[in-house]
Amino acid sequence: MAVDLLLGLQWGDEGKGKIVDVLTKNYNIIARFQGGPNAGHTLVFNGRKHVLHTIPSGIFHDDAINLVGNGVVIDPVIFKKELDKLEEQNIDYRKSLLISRKAHIILPTHRLLDAASEASKGKAKIGSTLKGIGPTYMDKTGRNGIRVGDLELADWKERYQSLADKHQSMIDYYDASIEYDLKELETEFFEAIEVLKSLTFIDSEEYVYRAQKSEKSILAEGAQGSLLDIDFGTYPFVTSSNTTAAGACTGLGVAPNQIGEVFGIFKAYTTRVGSGPFPTELFDEDGATMAKVGHEFGATTGRPRRCGWLDLVALKYACQVNGVTQLNMMKGDVLSGFKTLKVCTAYNYKGEEIKHLPYNIEPENVTPVYTEFKGWSEDLTTMTEASQFPEELNTYIDFLEKELEIPITIVSVGPDRKQTIFRG
Question: Which of 185, 272, 297, 299 is most buried (CB neighbours < 10 A)?
Answer without folding.
Answer: 272
